[in-house]
Amino acid sequence: MNERFLKACRKEPVDTVPVWIMRQAGRYLPEYMEVRSKHSFLEVCKTPELAVRVTLQPVERLGVDAAILFSDILIPVEAMGVPLEFHEGRGPILGRGLRDRADVEALRVPEPEKDLGFVMAAIRILRRELADNVPLIGFSGLPFTLASYIVEGGKTRDFARLRAIMKNDPQTFAALMDKLAETTVAYVDAQVKAGAQAIQLFDTWAGILDPADYKARVLPYTCRVAEAIQGRGVPVIHFTEDCEKLLPVLKELPVDVLSIDWRVPLDRAAAIVGSKFVLQGNLNSETLLRPLSEIEAAAAEVLKRGQVAGGHIFNLGHGILPKTNPETARALVEAVHRLGARN
Ligand code: CP3
């Protein structure tokens, strides 16, 4: 078993820097598109055999140091009673959005094994199939990012409705965050019991808030989720886009790893959060569209800056782009292992 990733999460010595790629199973892989030509995205998520197959594709092709369960952060939101659709090129659509306290009351807290059993089934099969290979990362969205999709009914540019509820109806916002925290704790707990060996928590849109609002109205719910997982003994990774201004607050999080977006050099992030955290990241996904020599130079730079952190897990600073050549992704993994080797 290649334990490099888990060792790095725990700050134990590693032979080289571990690497995996956000959205490593996805549309840039022809073998993924082959599965998608016969099944919708949600069908793949909800059919354990298909979710398992696409989860394994990048492990086999790229030689990454971890697998991440193939699913979506919005899957448990649908189980709460929110209609969910994906349309080509438009991103997710979630009904008419959330308006008032009655809409919050109408949301159910799912029972993971019953309502999301397909996720736990996929995790159990994956652990068997990955036994001699790499560890499996489970994941969930965090309450704020899930709330943004539920309130807006999809992805928006300005998050106007979300900001309006936070400002004009803070009790409704808090009730929603509370229900989402309860849902997320139960969901992640079930993933760990099924066999997930680390958990990445996605708070993609938290970076739209100023640090004071984030600290008062989001941080407590994130802490509730992260503490529950740490109590189970598996490493926790936190990701947010555009994280720089939040870093002075994020350093209060009870997590092992902070995933840093591509905008902030890792040494600058480390100077803010200190050496308590392992940092994950953060090559710009656009760089993978450049020639190999430039990619290697950029990866070497990320590795160099990552050395000053409490530890380093190489990744992109956000998801891999659909137009990336899979051969380039494979070459990146090889380059990180070669350039990151400790001797
Ligand atoms: O990283 C992995 O390989 C694991 C699988 C995974 C997906 N989504 C697969 C996916 C994970 C961890 C996610 C997380 C996710 N989903 C986030 C947080 C991370 C981030 O990217 O910021 C968010 C905000 C979502 C919501 C979501 N799902 C969006 C906005 C979209 C549409 C974007 C697009 O490119 O169309 C999705 C769909 C989605 N999730 C795809 C994949 C592979 C594309 C589906 C397809 O068309 O086949």
What report would you give on this structure?
- The protein has 343 residues and is α/β, with parallel strands linked by helices.
- Helix content is 48%, strand content 11%.
- The protein has helices at residues 4-9, 30-36, 41-46, 48-62, 75-79, 101-106, 112-115, 117-129, 143-152, 160-168, 170-194, 211-217, 219-230, 247-250, 266-273, 292-306, 326-339; strands at 67-68, 85-87, 91-93, 136-141, 198-202, 236-239, 257-259, 278-283, 312-316.
- The chain has a 7-stranded parallel beta sheet. A two-stranded antiparallel ribbon has the order 2-3.
- Helix 16 crosses helix 17 (326-339).
- The protein is globular, with a radius of gyration of 19 Å.
- The relative contact order is 0.14.
- Bound molecules: coproporphyrinogen III.
- The site of coproporphyrinogen III has 22 residues, from strand 3.
Summarize the structure.
The protein has 17 helices and nine strands. With 343 residues, it is an alpha/beta fold. The chain has a seven-stranded parallel β-sheet.
The low-confidence runs, each spanning 5 or more residues with pLDDT under 50, are: none
**SSE order in H/E notation?**
HHHHEHEEHHHEHHHEHHEHEHEHEH
Number of strands: 9
Mean pLDDT reading: 97
Strand order of the largest sheet: 1-4-5-6-7-8-9
Bound molecules: coproporphyrinogen III
Compute the number of helices: 17
Largest sheet: 7 strands, parallel
Using only CA atoms, what is the Rg? 19 Å
The level of helicity is 40-55%
The backbone outline, from C-alpha atoms, is: globular
Strand content is: 5-15%
Given the helix and strand composition, which structural class is it? alpha/beta
